[in-house]
TrEMBL record:
Its EC number is 2.7.13.3. It is found in: Membrane. This is histidine kinase. Its main location: membrane. It is a multi-pass membrane protein.
Length: 677
């Protein structure tokens, strides 16, 4: 403490008495000295010395003493040196009262001046402290706003707080599970660092424990009297410790601690330390918000990728593996699986993703027993999280336990109200993110959608195939009925008319003979029309010779010249041949009716188990796939066989019809295709 500050610690009454006695002593000393001086020069030198002493008193002690000393000195100079002078003897009653009044007034004036000076100095110091504190807080806030790395930010907070508060050390620590304290950052003066630690139990008496239990700032000023200390408070002769809570979104995240090894910390340390702890809480909240925002964006991107795959009608097996990979990478897991439940409390891994160095040891059917997401989700039908995997050999929980998984989450996959399976993510290093089990649900909903779409698509394909098969069967039945019924009767009738009826015509009835010839000719034309209709229902050339002769027949009968290139040898499955034949027939018919084309190119070939068909004309274009029932029927037939049909017809640029059909197992497979005209 500076000399000029010592007086402030005296009680006011004691300071007044001391100031009065100082003034009285100055008066007596001045009287004795001045009574023995006869020279004005010496008196002037004495006055100068008194002014210097007065200034020193005001500077180094307090103005409360300087005013009485100055007043007493002036009275002594006036009394014992300036004429009329007084004898060097004790003043009489009247003079003594005057002297006391003068000294009392001087003491009061001095106290008023001293109080004002002390307030000014205190205000100046407070202003400087506030300015320093605000500057330190601004520097820390700047780091927070810039999103500085956590290590850099925490170290800066500890150093700023330590230098500003003039303490021997600062520590930032994080609470974990309300039982441990985890070291975050530390600053200390040389020789004042406590024992280092990474994490330690909250035991014994400590400021950290008090802050955690109360949620408020706490202090201990008698640390040397504490017998049982926490591990992080050992190894140093602490005298005083103050701690302030670090609160993040209403939760006691950690503690900011300041300590002294020389004596009690100032009374305002708690409040000033709290300012820094609030900045630490803000920085942590901001960092968490940035992480959450980044995680949200990554999650939405992953969901979009999965949704795009599902919307594209990808095979479920491909979807399972893709979703598992997205989930594993998004959550930082080491393993992610899509697990399908079977009726006998077993299941099968149908989708798998594993991180580097992780090999899932089980690939066969696994039991759904033990401790883990698979069993819990099967029993509850709800998302869950676990920090323990345990199960017998041959169970999915046992597989995760064998990998050393410490943290896992699972969410059910429900298809049309039925629990189909579970999505599981697991980690053997760091715990999965908070809420991972709920975030998994968004992915399992997409998996369920993919399964439902696949079921619907399979049902649609099966339904189309049944319709096409039924239509083909009906055509064959009608063709057979026409051949065996109406055609045979018409042939028999024509023969009867040419035979028995014509022979029964009497000679000379030429008009009757001509009429019979006309009826027989018309019967022949009707029979030809009936045969043409039968061929349209089920072309005989296709049934007898396959696509090559059937397409040649279509090309010869086309009203528009056709260039035909069929690179298919052998016979294909009957539904494939029918679909290709009817597609070409419909395209040629539409070209003749609407395209106003001068020619048509028909190309057909097989490649990698797929029949590729293309019909292109040079007509007016502008055709639409839904413009007529013919193409719609062809499209249904093609898609019922797992194929695709596309139509490209820009106005003025011709029309191209393309068909792709999976071959299955064609008759005569393996033969080399040969080009034809």
């Amino acid at each position: 403490m500076a000399p000029w500050e010592r007086a402030r610690w005296l009680p006011l009454g004691a300071e007044i008495v001391l100031a009065f006695m100082t003034g009285a002593g100055t008066f007596v000393l001045g009287a004795v000295v001045l009574a023995s001086i006869d020279s004005d020069v010496v008196a002037a030198l004495l006055g100068a010395v008194c002014l210097v002493a007065l200034t020193a008193i005001a500077r180094f002690t307090s103005v409360a003493y300087a005013v009485p000393v100055g007043m007493a000195g002036m009275l002594a100079f006036d009394w014992f040196y300036l004429p009329p002078t007084h004898p060097l003897e004790f003043p009489d009653t009247a003079n003594l009262v005057d002297l006391i009044v003068y000294l009392v007034v001087a003491v009061l004036l001095g106290e008023i001046a001293a109080h004002a000076a002390r307030r000014a100095r205190a205000a100046e110091r407070a202003h400087a402290d506030i300015a320093d504190e605000q500057a330190a807080l601004r520097r820390v806030a700047t780091l927070v706003a810039k999103g500085a790395p956590a290590d850099e930010l925490f170290a800066a907070v500890a150093a700023e707080a330590g230098n500003l508060l003039d303490v021997h050390g600062i520590r930032i620590a994080r609470y974990e599970d309300a039982t441990e304290l985890v070291h975050v950052a530390e600053w200390s003066k040389p020789g004042c660092a406590p024992a280092p630690y990474d994490r330690a139990k909250l035991e014994g008496t400590s400021v950290s424990g008090q802050v955690l239990s109360t949620g408020r700032a706490a202090r201990i000023d008698n640390y040397e009297d504490i017998a049982v200390r926490a591990p992080f408070a050992r190894g140093l002769d602490l005298k005083s410790v103050v701690g302030a809570p670090v609160v993040v979104e209403g939760r006691r995240w950690g503690v900011l601690i300041a300590w002294s090894v020389s004596g009690p910390l100032p009374a305002d340390t708690e409040g000033r330390l709290t300012g820094f702890s609030e900045l630490v809480g803000t920085a942590i909240a901001n960092a968490q918000a940035r992480v959450e925002l980044r995680n949200f964006a990554e999650e939405q991107a992953a969901l979009r990728r999965v949704a795009t795959l599902v919307a594209g009608g990808a095979d479920p097996a491909e979807t399972f593996g893709f979703v598992a990979a997205e989930v594993g990478q998004l959550f930082g897991a080491d393993l992610a699986v899509v697990f399908r439940y079977e009726p006998d409390r077993t299941g099968t891994v149908v989708g798998l993703w594993n991180g580097p160095g992780v090999e899932f040891p089980c690939t066969t059917r696994l039991g759904v027993t033990g401790v883990g997401p698979a069993a819990t989700v099967l029993e509850t039908g709800r998302p869950m999280r676990t920090e323990r995997f345990e199960g017998p050999d041959g169970s999915i929980a046992g597989c995760f336990a064998h990998l050393g998984a410490r943290s896992g989450a699972g969410a059910p996959i429900t298809v049309e109200g039925r629990l189909w399976g579970v999505m599981i993510a697991a980690s053997h290093a760091e715990p999965l993110p908070s809420g991972a089990e709920l975030r998994l649900a968004a992915f399992t909903e997409l998996v369920a959608t993919a399964l439902a779409d696949a079921d619907a698509q399979a049902a649609l394909t099966t339904s189309r195939a049944r319709i096409v098969t039924a239509a083909d069967t009906a055509r064959r039945r009608i063709e057979r009925d026409l051949h065996d019924g109406a055609q045979q009767r018409l042939v028999a009738l024509a023969l009867h008319l040419r035979g028995a009826v014509q022979q029964a015509v009497p000679p000379g009835a030429d008009h009757l003979t001509a009429e019979l010839d006309r009826v027989v000719a018309e019967l022949g034309e009707v029979l030809d029309d009936l045969r043409e209709l039968a061929r349209g229902l089920h072309p005989a050339a296709l049934a007898e010779g396959g696509l090559r002769p059937a397409l040649k027949m279509l090309a010869r009968r086309s009203a528009v010249p056709v260039s035909l290139d069929v690179r298919v040898d052998g016979r294909l499955l009957e539904p494939i041949e029918l679909a290709a034949y009817y597609a070409v027939s419909e395209a040629l018919t539409n070209t003749a009716k609407h395209a106003d084309a001068s020619g048509v190119d028909v190309r057909m070939e097989t490649d990698n188990g797929v029949l590729h068909l293309s019909v292109r004309d040079d007509g007016r274009g502008g055709a639409r796939a839904g413009g007529g029932s013919g193409l719609i029927g062809i499209k249904d037939r093609v898609e019922a066989l797992g194929g695709r049909l596309s139509l490209h017809s820009p106005p003025g640029a011709g029309t191209t019809l393309q068909v792709s059909l999976p071959l299955g197992t064609p008759n005569g497979a393996g033969s080399s295709p040969q080009p034809t005209e």
